[in-house]
Amino acid sequence: MALRNSRTTFGAVAKFLHWIMAALILSNYVFEQFMHRLAISPLKWLFYDLHKSVGLTVLLLWALRLAWRSFSPAPASPSTLPAVQRTIARASHVLLYVCMLVMPVSGFIGSKAGGFAASWFGIVEMPDLFGKNDAINFWAEAVHTFTAYGLLALVCVHASAALHHHFVRRDAVMARMLPGTISRNGWVPDEPVRR
Ligand code: HEM
Ligand code: HEM
After folding, report:
1. Do 158 and 150 form a contact (C-beta atoms < 8 A)?
2. Can you give the chain as a three-state secondary structure string?
3. Residue 182: band (very low, low, confident or very high) from pLDDT cuts 50, 70, 90
4. Is the dihedral of CA 74, 14, 10, 175 positive or negative?
5. Mean pLDDT in residue range 97-112
6. pLDDT exceeds cutoff 50 at 185
7. Which residue's C-alpha comes closest to atom 39 of ligand 2?
């Protein structure tokens, strides 16, 4: 599998970044449940630290992913898709990228403005930008919560659309984001998948 994206399919780097980021983001929703629900204890703080560290990892990968994307542009949507669907897909991907940035940044700002520490796995301590500030803390937390629900809804639609393409329309949209699919089923780029 090529590292770079081709004209019609995602390469190994884009696939790896897509799936690792999806796993980290979804894990953070689970960690948040633990940090929210556990009684005050060292375990609760451990989940806070884990949530913040995983979130900051997402921020780092986000920057790498966009840098890689500008070096190796994403393939165009298959020409079998109507123009309106291609536009919706593109717009939803832009929104996903925006949410993937807003989540860690608002979480980091909210934590710092609330007077709490935020570090990356205890290795890199995030800088104090403005000290404790209740107004910034309030708005950053509001943005964090609002975007969290928005992102979750968007991901549900996004994943449903991908599964619909794969199992109902049986086209190449999902196949080109899956590891190794193309060599496995002999898919001819830009044509419906032969399965
Ligand atoms: C991909 C990144 C992230 C995701 C998906 C995520 C998701 C969430 C969710 C779903 C909540 C619960 C919101 C609510 O019900 O009010 C939450 C709360 C929280 N997040 Fe994140 N988060 C991310 C990154 C971060 C980062 C980087 C930090 C800090 C450095 C952070 C700090 C917090 C804190 C402190 C809370 C609790 C706020 C409170 O006590 O009300 N998050 N996060
Ligand atoms: C937190 C979860 C997820 C996020 C944030 C996310 C985000 C994204 C983004 C931004 C793209 C566009 C890539 C680009 O053009 O650079 C993309 C593509 C894609 N995603 Fe996800 N995704 C998530 C989960 C999923 C899941 C669960 C599935 C499948 C069940 C999925 C299937 C796909 C597919 C098939 C594509 C390629 C679409 C195409 O061929 O144009 N994603 N995703």
Report:
1. no
2. CCCCCCCCCCCHHHHHHHHHHHHHHHHHHHHHHHHHHCCCCHHHHHHHHHHHHHHHHHHHHHHHHHHHHHHCCCCCCCCCCCHHHHHHHHHHHHHHHHHHHHHHHHHHHHHHHCCCCCEECCCEECCCCCCCCHHHHHHHHHHHHHHHHHHHHHHHHHHHHHHHHHHHHCCCCCHHHCCCHHHHHCCCCCCCCCC
3. low
4. negative
5. 98
6. no
7. 173
* Count of CB atoms situated within 10 Å of the CB of 76: 12
- pTM recorded for the entire structure: 0.94
Q: Looking at the predicted structure, is the pLDDT value of residue 190 above 50?
A: no
State whether the beta carbon of 145 lies less than 6 angstroms from ligand 1: yes
**How big is the chain by its Cα radius of gyration, in Å?**
19
User: What is the pLDDT, as a whole number, of residue 130?
Assistant: 82
Q: Whose CA is nearest to atom 4 of ligand 2?
A: 22
Percent of the chain with pLDDT over 90: 79
The residue that leads in pLDDT, 129 or 150, is 150
Q: Which domains are seen in the chain, by residue range? A: 12-185 (1.20.950)
- State whether the beta carbon of 108 lies less than 6 angstroms from ligand 1: yes
Mutate which of 26, 28, 119 for ligand 1? The one with the most ligand atoms within 8 Å of its CB, which is 28
